[in-house]
Amino acid sequence: MSFNRDEHGTQRPKGNHMTTADMEHRIVRYGDLQPCKTAFIDAHTPGSNTKENFTIIGGGVSESPDQHVHIAISHGFNIGAAGQPPKCRNSLHIHRTAEVFFVLSGRWRFFWGRYGDAGEVTLEEGDIINIPTGIFRGFENISTDYGMIMAILGGDDAGGGVVWAPQVIEDAKDHGLVLGDNGKLYDSKSGATLPDGVAPMPVLNAEELKAFPEPTTAEVVPHYVARYWDMMALADRTPAKVIGESAMLRDKPGFEVDFITRTSATADMHSHKFPSVLMPMRGHWRVTWQGGSATLAPGDTMSVPENLAHSTVPSMTGESSLYRVVATSDPAGLTWKG
Fold first, then answer.
1. Structure-derived torsion over alpha carbons of residues 243, 248, 250, 256, reported in degrees to the nearest 10
2. Between β-strands 310-314 and 266-270, what pairing exists: parallel, antiparallel or unpaired?
3. DSSP secondary structure string, 104-156?
């Protein structure tokens, strides 16, 4: 039998057999998520200073040394989450690889463009958006309670970080936070200064800003947003292909996303040649593999190793839905086709 070493340095059987104890290291429960409140440059800016960032699988794009990474195993993509109270927003920024969100709880407004006024869309629970790369984007919890959105970022290094709109960097400076050109944050309120040899992160100039498109709502929504109840209908007999080469949202961002319901789930054992991740939206789900089983609830995240035969079915009656993310060999490249 061959082995891999996991993120703890422990030998684990490769491919076809994992014990329940082995797999517990690959499950992050919603209630065990550890937030970072200083993940990004707008952490002190009024209106954005109450948000929480979660890095679940992979290093993500956090700029803070305080960010906790739950699972460090490389998957070819990253899984994270953002939790925000009502009226809290995430400031305008750009990613160089795909950024996909589905709404776990709450009601969210996503907006984009240099000043956030080129277009916008409101997402309800279960809806998903594949935000095009190369455009400034932000999002805000517009519900009346704390909300959570789950995120998929393309690539193991998620494109090397975040590019902020110039006004975000300027506003942050007024509240004590400076981003170094090494991608790390320094808080002058805590007495931190830029180390020798580290300069402030350059602000995009007017000429550079011309390269970033400003698509309208009509250009973005039909091709990059899928609604929960549409996916529920499409996944009546077989899983709905949500993101992929021939999916509802046609794209090749380095991973595929499927949507599975009670009626499209199967107890048949199957495996994937690349790592996959299971993320329940509604209901409880029983995952079974050779060597053990586990039950997942909404907000839980489970990493399934490549080549591990497993089945995923609802374990209780009632509404059941689940997102499945599977890595592909496609590069985590651009998604905006405007």
1. 20
2. antiparallel
3. EES-EEEEESTTS-SEEEEE-TT-EEEEPTTS-EEEEE-SSS-EEEEEEEESS
Q: What is the mean pLDDT of residues 53-73?
A: 89
Tell me, yes or no, if the pTM score tops 0.70. Answer: yes
Are the C-beta atoms of 297 and 141 separated by less than 8 Å? no
The residue length of the chain stands at 338
Radius of gyration of the chain (CA): 20
Question: What is the tens place of the pLDDT at every residue in 103-155?
Answer: 999 999 999 999 999 999 999 999 999 998 889 999 999 999 999 999 999 98
Beta bridge partners of 149: 82, 103
Report residue 234 as tokens.
């499409």
Residue range 194-203, pLDDT digits in tens: 999 999 998 9
Provide DSSP, 21-58: HHHHTTEE-GGG---BSSSSTTTTSTTTTT-EEEEEES
Q: Which domains, ranges and CATH numbers included, belong to the chain?
A: 3-13+27-220 (2.60.120.10), 228-327 (2.60.120.10)
